[in-house]
Amino acid sequence: MRDIERLFNEYSESHMNPTNKMIHQLAVPLIYFSVIGLLWSIPVPDWLAQYGVNFAHIAILPALYYYFLLSGPIGAAMTLLTIGCFLVLQQIAASEVAVWQVSVVVFVVMWILQFVGHWVEGKRPSFLTDLRFLLIGPAWVWGSWLKRLHISY
């Protein structure tokens, strides 16, 4: 069994309840977005800022590399999600609201939803047993969409 399939199977064990699955379909990508937003908000040195680079740009590279190691289609899907996150964050950054404020609110609300989902499920979140599942969650959401579209990963 490929590593991506094994990880998705393990992750799925604590995500069987339809309500929990639905919550995760919403909350996991938004948590991914909020983490990128929080990294985006960390001040960077001027020598880096002059190139329009922030810590989100730097931190996402090893994560995307990991996703591509697991599966090309998952890596591509996560790249699309990441580009979407960056585009929305650019819009927020151009507005009157601080990116970090939006990110904190989204992060807290979505984690509360996640824990409600796991309470409904009656199982602990997967990341409590293996921290890799913090990265696997967003890929698992994409994996379910890829399956619906009949795209193998």
Automatic annotation (TrEMBL):
The chain crosses the membrane at residues 21-42, 74-93, 99-120, 127-145. Keywords: Membrane, Transmembrane, Transmembrane helix. InterPro entries: Mpo1-like (IPR009305). Pfam families: Mpo1-like (PF06127). It comes from the Bacteria. PANTHER family: 2-HYDROXY-PALMITIC ACID DIOXYGENASE MPO1, DUF962 DOMAIN PROTEIN (AFU_ORTHOLOGUE AFUA_8G05310). This is DUF962 domain-containing protein. It comes from Alteromonas gilva.
